[in-house]
Description:
By secondary structure, the protein is an alpha+beta fold. The chain has helices spanning about 5-10, 20-45, 50-70, 135-150, and strands spanning about 10-15, 80, 85, 105-110, 115-120, 155-165, 170-185, 185-195, 200-210, 220-224. About 30% of the residues lie in helices and about 30% in strands. Bound molecules: ligand 3VV.
Amino acid sequence: MTDALDAVARLFVNDGLSEDEIARQAALYGPLADDVRALIPLAVQTRAGDDDVRQAREHLAAAMELLGRTKEDHPFGTRFNDNGNFRVWGNAVMGLRNAIAPLHRINHDPDGRVWADFHLHVGFEGPAGHTHGGVSALVLDQLLGDAARVGGSPGMTGTLTLRYRKPTPLGDLHGEAKLDRTEGRKAFVTGHISGPHGICVEAEGIFIKPHWPVEDGRDRNQTR
Ligand SMILES: CCCCCCCC/C=C\CCCCCCCC(=O)SCCNC(=O)CCNC(=O)[C@H](O)C(C)(C)COP(=O)(O)OP(=O)(O)OC[C@H]1O[C@@H](n2cnc3c(N)ncnc32)[C@H](O)[C@@H]1OP(=O)(O)O
């Protein structure tokens, strides 16, 4: 195992938390991330003047001082308990504790399709008024990877190919993905993002199951 893969495995931890404790932490830290998320478009759009911005920054500095008093010194990783309650709370796309994560929830249909309705605020802008192409790739990487996992072939992204068919607006969007087939350790997955005027980005991905044993979390809860 390489050092990098070793680090992935080390952050894959059964922390033995009770369901009550997980619920307590979700109720405590989820709203904190929501508040920070709400700040991002405000930083882009506020018209506040010198005094208000200075005051707001003092409040934020005080909040950062409070929050920084005790903290972990490593990324969140993947945590789970004996019930198979998996948590990826630091995940960039759907982490409950991650303020940049645009997805609240990924839904799983019985036929293996995974999908999410989500909202991209102005902090995700690329071309004027539209979604940054890298953000579409970010969301599709997660959706396609989750479809591979749900289909029983969890893996790292080997190749992700995108076709940007038309500009993706900001705002309310839909994304979905489905496992097409597997070949050995490779899972071939397709998906897309659509907006009010149809499909904007199509994706094909190859997800490769690492050599080391992976607990895939299939048929288990995976909370944001
Ligand atoms: C303990 C925890 C473990 C967790 C594991 C994941 C579980 C996921 C669960 C839930 C997912 C939820 C959703 C997540 C979504 C987000 C995912 C990301 O963002 S992942 C970050 C970006 N991706 C990387 O950083 C990969 C970096 N690359 C690598 O680590 C390796 O290159 C890896 C694992 C992709 C392949 O390495 P090899 O050593 O296993 O590959 P070789 O043995 O050489 O090849 C195996 C087969 O795959 C093909 N292959 C190899 N690399 C390929 C590639 N890049 N694209 C296409 N095919 C490739 C080869 O041609 C070969 O095919 P032939 O068996 O001969 O037919």
